[in-house]
Amino acid sequence: MLKIVRTTPYTDQKMGTAGIRKKSTVVEQPNYIENFVQSIFNVLGGVEGQTFVLGGDGRYYNKIAIQKILKMAAANGMKKIIVGQNGFISTPTSSRVLLDNHADGGLVLTASHNPGGPKGDFGIKYATKTGGQCSSAVSDKIYAETKQISEYKTLDAPDVDLSKIGVQKLGNMEIEVIDSVTPYVEMMRGIFDFEAIRKLFAGGFRFVFDAMNAVTGPYAQRIFEQELGAAKGSVLNAVPMEDFGGLHPDPNLIYAKELVDIMYSDNAPDMGAANDGDGDRNMILGKKFFVTPSDSLAILTDNYKYIPAYKNGIYGVAKSAATSTAVGRVAEALNIGYYEVPTGWKYFCNLMDSKRITFCGEESFGTGSSHIREKDGIWAILFWLNIIAATGKSVEEITREHWAKYGRSYYMRNDYDGIDVDLANKLMADLEARLPSLKGKTFGQFTVSEARPFIYNDPVDGSSTQNGLVVYFTDKSRIVYRLSGTGTNGATLRVYLERFETNDFDKNMQKFLEPLADVSRQIGEIVERTGKAKADVLT
Ligand code: G16
Q: Does the active-site annotation cover 112?
């Protein structure tokens, strides 16, 4: 039975870098999810007759939110919803299923790499029919709607059983429960040389993948172990859990500790990799060797010819402004288009839709291509495995050859967490005001050549976005400052540091970047303003 429920608006439903991301306790408030979802439907002018894709990374509150959304969709006259079995779908798969089915939109329930559980985080990403996240213009409209919403529609009906694959009805709406792993496996088979990777594993190549108790466990077991023949047990933490077993499913050197310990042990396998909560991020490790996401993007781009789906040529490549400039040197050598965009995957989508780029990536462990409109964790790992299978070289050899050819960007991100939001905003505003006065100034060994806000003019839709502040130095070093758009605990100031080196590739990363980190604190007045002498997290 149709129910119209009166509600009062929340004022904090502005989408950040990727949808809304909140503490679980926030989304558990009465009508919180309902207000947000109805606001999306309203901004779309209703969803009558439409088809959506729905699912999440299985974190705490996934099941509850899915039932709420199914009932609301049916009450709003949606024609069909395609849902992952038991409500599971990785972000990359959701994008693929959306495109394959010509769906009108999609909702992915995830807070990505943030921890889960009753004390963790929850979130919703909204994708349009392009398979990518909505534009800032649309998210602004949705935010405006969330501030004035007064009612939502739902159905008075029992919960839907999502455990069985097949079609069922809720009111007049069709619900198709799918095995979300199969379409993803088929997509990967269509891109990479599975036969070559199979031979690599058959030849004894040792591989370990950490699913971090998140959504990619079942995908990874199917692809790496069953399809490609990696040894049984190669996939660690393979069973998705509501709280990720207490892990912080962020694939970096700090949070993927179990994997890092294995890869830095004396008996390390040949390659290690990890994904995040919803399967769109990746980390690549060789034996006692870490590949920065910025280098990974550059290396994949330079080696596109080894991959069957790209061997006939690629369009250009793009990176977020904060990501190191390594891929820019490859783009120049390959003579392909090269774009720098604000942080947020949605900024790549217009470039992919208009065939300006094939590959794109970000420092925050996201890499992807135009096969979907989200970043793709397992795709990046298969890309590496395919290159290794084709060249017979190790992760370290491939990376070192890259440095020898192009030079090395030593690169790290310093995060200052849990800062008061007003204080952080003021720090950025004041720094922006000071930027023009920095030009020509010398800080220790570094002289500023240019300092400006990063402004992106989208060549496709003409929109203009400012994101972060960039300080360039005469020796090709760079510092980028920006505030995170995905945190849930005050503000996080991210400071990205880069130094370029053409000869010595064995410097200690942190030590080499430390003088620049000092300069970044000085220029940003970070210590005085935040009281923090050092960053909380270095990645
Ligand atoms: C999201 C976006 C990414 C972006 C990242 C940055 O990643 O999808 O495009 O790079 O946030 O986060 P922040 O604003 O905190 O630096 P994800 O994996 O969380 O969806």
A: yes
